[in-house]
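Tutorial handout. Part one gives the primary structure; part two gives the three-dimensional structure as tokens.
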Amino acid sequence: MIRSILTVCCLWCFGASACAAAAPPNIVFILTDDLGWSDLGCYGSSWKNTPHLDKLAAEGIRFTQAYAAQPICSANRAALMTGRTPARLNLTDFIPGRPVLPSQKMIRPQIALNLPLEEQTLPERLQPAGYTSALFGKWHLGGPNFSPAEQGFDHYYNGQANTTPTDTEGGKGEYDLTDKAITWISEQPKGRPFFCYLAHNTPHIPLGAKPGLEEQYNKASNPTYAAMMATLDDCTGRLLTALETQGRTADTLVIFMSDNGGLSTMEGIRTPATSNAPLRGGKGCLYEGGTRVPWIMRWPGQLPAGKTDATPIMATDLLPTLMSFAGLPAPDHVDGLDLSSFLTTGKHPARDTLCWHYPHYSNQMGFPAGSIRHGDWKLIESYDDSHLELYNLRDDPSETQDLARTQPLLVNQLLTRLNDWKKSVNAQPMQGPNPDYDPLATWNLARPKKSGAIELHASDAEVIGTMLRYEPNPKKNTLGFWTRKEDQAAWDLQVPAPGRYRITVMQGCGKGNGGSLVHVMVGSTALPFTVQETNGFQDFRPVVVGEADLPAGRTRLTLAPQTKTAAAVMDVRMVLLAPVK
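Part two.
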């Protein structure tokens, strides 16, 4: 009876004061760079290359609806370090940001080029509880005079962002950073808490991995990326083993997460790096694939083991939560919530709305936008052309069914909430129209050849969906993984002169997979065609689907499957529009 009373009292104290009854824990925070939501085995990957991270999830809490505060690195790292939304910090893009290009209809706001020194960071806030702090790896929040040393870290080792893969090192300096972190932890005296921030450069481009591992995962969609996951997992396993060997497992809170969604578009060799399916999009956009991230927490005896939780949480929540676990009072002027009671007792946080403000064109073809999630509903507002999208994430987590036209009242309500939030955080708007804007320079805008023909290449397609992706040279150069009939491919194109155009699709389809019905939507015309079986998905044959009368100017062509008869719809290398003489 006495034991039960003590247990209840401890839980009550924890929930009431949001601080652990135990001594302040050591904190090991492992942050990855561009790791996709579904890249780990425990999140659905079939590569079987992350056993240590899968075990970590089994021993702690795995969150399935955890979010980055921004779909890009520096902005989210600033949110993690301060607990404040990137919009409030005016640090909404990567540092130094993307220059204004003729392809951009609007001019982005000027962003802060460093995390201001007056902002209190997590290591600075942990100091009153006696913490010593160290950062190993990527900072990306400012250069000289704005380094980790000026922001509360007692020790900093940046390592190398890119290394030559060997038998003892991966392509991103993973082992070097991990070994340095292990050594530093071993030097910390027992009884004094520490904060170890291990910020891997993995798996940011350029991709690189041990050759032997690449061969081991040669059946993966991206062998280099799969090998990088295996290296990341191995390094995590080394660190966890070191904690156990040093007798620190029980008093150490381990956190693992990504800074934003995985890179799912073309950006250099061996890319797209990954797919965030079943989520839409990836790094650099406000669809779920760009903001939802893997997030695991383990603290033996203090947090539940083997728990999977779908409560929406955000990167800004990390700072107030860790302060509570350290026994420190709730911080002032932060946007995140203290999740300590939720993590230990299951009491859900008093929040049903999350907001984002990303006024930038990203390197990953993302458009400037704001977004709000309220309950299961999510609204995206484009700052480029003011179009609105509405999705129900419970019924449609892949964001394929835009309900904005059928739910006008809800759209207005959510847009009002989003605008009110932006005012409350003093979000910096776009600076206005780009005077040098050139519609012909817009991404994916295909220009006609001298012959008048227009070539739409697979590498230039906009992918609308979750599984379809561009698979680059040197091996493929195709739109592939078309395993969902809901996925579509689209191109914007400039028609030089009004007239009639013959449309040909260069398609491939493996034996036994033909017969899917696809509509070519161009202008006001819908042309159906049946996918022809070839000797393989990479054996491309031209299929003339019909002719369409097109006006001069900009238009859009979409490949929209209506049925899928077997494993995949088809592969596509190119669509050709040739003028009919």
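Part three, for discussion. Residues 6 and 12 are 10 Å apart (CA to CA). The chain has three domains: 25-345, 355-432, 444-579.
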